[in-house]
Write a structure and sequence with these properties.
The complex is a heterodimer. Chain A is mainly β. Helix content of chain A is 0%, strand content 48%. Chain A has strands spanning 5-7, 10-13, 19-24, 31-37, 43-50, 53-56, 65-68, 75-79, 88-95, 106-107, 111-115. In chain A, strands 2, 4, 5, 6, 9, 10 and 11 form a seven-stranded mixed β-sheet that branches. Chain A has a four-stranded antiparallel β-sheet with strand order 1-3-8-7, with no helix packed on it. In chain A, strand 7 (65-68) and strand 8 form a beta hairpin. Chain B has strands spanning 3-5, 10-14, 19-21, 24-26, 32-39, 46-52, 59-61, 64-69, 74-79, 88-96, 104-105, 109-114. Classes of the chains: A mainly beta, B mainly beta. At the A-B interface, strand 5, strand 9 and strand 10 of A face strand 5, strand 6, strand 10 and strand 11 of B.
Chain lengths: 116, 115
Amino acid sequence: EAGVTQFPSHSVIEKGQTVTLRCDPISGHDNLYWYRRVMGKEIKFLLHFVKESKQDESGMPNNRFLAERTGGTYSTLKVQPAELEDSGVYFCASSHFRSRPQETQYFGPGTRLLVL
Amino acid sequence: AQKVTQAQTEISVVEKEDVTLDCVYETRDTTYYLFWYKQPPSGELVFLIRRNSFDEQNEISGRYSWNFQKSTSSFNFTITASQVVDSAVYFCALRTGGGADGLTFGKGTHLIIQP
C-alpha cells in the first residue's frame, strides 16, 4: 500500500510569487491534514479535511493560504502571495475513516519551501 | 491549551548504549492520546506508537519501550542497545478529544548514534 505522497519535494520561489503544494493521501483515507514546521519551531497544525469538507481550519495563518480537496481525494495548499516567513516544511498526513482523536495520522515526506 | 515539551534538543550516544527521550505534556482534558513519531533523514514522519490516557501500561516493542506516567504527565521513550539506524529526529505529540483536530507536537529530539 502506497503511503502519503507530496509534491514537489522542494520549492524555491521569490517573495510575492505563488506556490501550490499537493498531497495524495493513503488510498481510502477520508481524513487529510496539513501541518507546517517553520525553522526551529514545532510542527504546527494547519487544517483538517474530512473527505472534501474542511473540518477544522483553525491553524491556517492567514488568508494567503488556500487549501482545497476537490472530490475528496488529493489536496492542494496554495500560498499566494508568498512571504519570507512562509518558508518551512509543509507536511501532509492522512487517517482512516471516522474523525476520531485516537486515529493514527500517517505522514508524508513533506515539501520544503524556501521563499527568497 | 495543550503543550508538549521535549527538553532534549539533541542527544549523542555511542552505539549499543541505552538512551531515553523525554516527553512532558500539558492538557486539561481527561481523555487524550499520545504519539511518538520518528523522522529519519528521508524526511517523512514514521509512526511509532499511540497511547490512550486511560491506559497506563508501559509498552515494549523489540528494543523500543515507552513509559507513560500520568502522575508526572510524561511519556518517555527508551531505546535499548541503540544502533546507528536509530539516528533520527523523534517527535512526541498529543491529541485531545476537544480543541483543534490536529496533533500538538514537541520540538523534537535529534538523536545521534555514533558507531
